[in-house]
Amino acid sequence: MKTLTSSAITAPAGLRTRENLLLLLLKLRTFIALILILGFFTVMVPGFLAGGSMIIMMKHIAINAFLALGITFVIITAGIDLSIGATLGLCGMIAGWMITQGIVLPMFGIAIFPSVWVVVPVVLVVGGLIGAANGLIITRYNVAPFICTLGTMYILRGAAMLLSNGETFPALDGNPRLGNTGFDLIGSGSLLAIPYSIWLMFLLALLIAYIARRLPFGRHVYAIGDNERAAELSGIKVKQVKVWVYTLSGLCAALAGIVVSSQLVASHPATGTAFEMNAIAAVVLGGTSLAGGRGTILGTLIGAFVIGILADGLVMMGVSEFWQMVIKGMVIIIAVIIDQMQNRMQHKAAIVSQKADKAAG
């Protein structure tokens, strides 16, 4: 019978230690990137970490975070939603239309101007219905998520243009005589000197993290992304879960649309163009696998901070918008490459662990 020498044991153990260390660094890549970016811009841009600058940056980050948090579950199920930017734009336009134009009732010859307490829920419902429609088309007719949401993106952009004939709805602060004031406070108001949008960002992150870690729905999402067929055989209602996942994505996009329109005190049909790319970049950079089955809400939130700070830092440095696009594209590609490396290393580690268990048995 063959015996193992001490060198034969320690060498593989040392190799595994190095691999485990590298895997840990890959898992922490988003946090490391955030520290490095903060350090770089702190040195390169005077006053970068000043209170006023950080508040402005976090308000920008919040918009991307709303979209990224909503799409995280979608990507965990190995799906994609390219319509979130267009959903943001259309929902903002609907809010602007209700505030400035009112709901016209021709048969009575009047127009009803709803209060902000009506406008916000209606817009959120519209966003949720858009997401639900995506989910139903994808699950019922077996349409690829990329194709379905790409088509939806064009439909929503066109609808936003038709709603105002391509024009902007201005002055969303409302009219006191009509009782529809207060919409602008969503974007400009603050609590304890922190804007409402930032509070909303952290509250949404906590809510979705709770769903992911504590509720059966969250476990079902991960199970579907890991192995959809196995999840279905285990009794999980895969189609129903997917519909709800896309509904959540639409809701978060609608929330982002409300906040953007409130901050600008205006709605424009082109608002949110290419926002979906920043959201996807934040999710992937945060460690969520495009292949599905893996990802964390905290990682997505940190990814949103990385993308937001990078974008604002480059602007403050005076970097050309064209170079900003190049740099963002490189960040996305690098994030995907690192994600693939992590997938391969985790797969290899799992195989080694299985072999070790069999040998021990």
Keywords:
mainly alpha; two-stranded antiparallel ribbon; disordered N terminus; transmembrane helix; Erythritol ABC transporter membrane protein
Describe this structure in words.
With 361 residues, the protein is mainly α. The protein has a domain at 65-273. 73% of the residues lie in helices and 3% in strands. The chain contains 14 helices and four strands. Helix 2 (29-44) packs parallel to helix 13 and helix 12 (275-285) crosses helix 13 (297-316). The longest helix has 40 residues, at 321-360. It is globular and about 80 Å long. The protein starts with 5 loop residues before the first helix and ends with a helix.
Mean pLDDT: 88
Cα distance, first to last residue?
A: 17 Å
- Percent of sequence in beta strands: under 5%
Give me the Rg, rounded. 23 Å
Number of helices: 14
How many beta-strand runs? 4
* Gross geometry: globular
Widest β-sheet, arrangement of strands: 1-2
SS-based class? mainly alpha
Flag low-confidence runs. Answer: 1-11
- Major sheet, described briefly? 2 strands, antiparallel
| Order of H and E elements | HHHHEEHHHEEHHHHHHH
Kindly state the percentage of residues in helix: over 70%
Question: What's the SSE blueprint?
Answer:
Elements: H1 6-27, H2 29-44, H3 51-76, H4 84-100, E1 103-105, E2 110-112, H5 116-140, H6 145-164, H7 185-188, E3 190-191, E4 194-195, H8 196-214, H9 216-226, H10 228-233, H11 238-264, H12 275-285, H13 297-316, H14 321-360
Antiparallel strand pairs: 1-2, 3-4
Helix pairs in contact: 1-14, 2-13, 3-8, 3-11, 3-12, 3-13, 4-5, 4-6, 4-11, 5-6, 5-11, 8-9, 9-11, 12-13, 12-14
